[in-house]
Amino acid sequence: MMIKNEVLEKAKICVTGLIDNNLKVIITESCTAGLMSFVISCIPGASKVLSCSFVVYSNYAKSKILGINMDMIDKYGAVSPEVSLLMATCALKASEADISISITGFAGPSNNICEKVGLVYIGYAISELESEYKKCYFQNMNRYEIQMSSVDFALDFLLYKIRQLK
To answer: Which domains does the chain have, with CATH numbers?
Structure first.
């Protein structure tokens, strides 16, 4: 599977924007399993801006690595606005980064009718008090397309936030 040139170009613009603004990013991923971090790392200069990345695929990892209370995961679900924000803020606290991005969602396929395949939340934080999320719903896509679309959207969101911080 190849990464589209448009996605790599967006990653390059994000890396350049982070470098120009002397910012570092931390990325915490669930359903994309490190894909966004990989895409960023493909860009020369990424080592100047990518502070750290976490892949917290399981609820246990979200709790153990990030310190998210299991009661919160049980209450809201791992794929929820609340958990996407907790992923972003908890990761930020554990790093030297200025910006945190998180991705959680259902990439599918699934036999569980409660899971909405294609539902993804992108979390963002620059502090515990300043965080935001975006809800995406990618329909009629396979697993890889959902993952790549999530990364593409997260890069757009990151770029938007970098430009706001100028």
So the answer is: 24-140+149-165 (3.90.950.20)
**Residue 128 pLDDT class (50, 70, 90 cuts):** confident
Q: Is the peptide bond before 109 cis (omega within 30 degrees of 0)?
A: yes
Please state the pTM of the whole predicted model: 0.95
Question: What pLDDT is attached to residue 161?
Answer: 95
Name the nearest CA neighbour of 88 among 133, 32, 120, 43.
133
For tokens 């709790």, the residue is 63
Pick the closest to residue 98 from 121, 127, 65, 56 (CA basis): 127
Q: How many CB atoms lie within 10 A of CB 162?
A: 21
Distances in Å between the Cα of 149 and the Cα atoms of 49, 103, 155 are 22, 11, 10
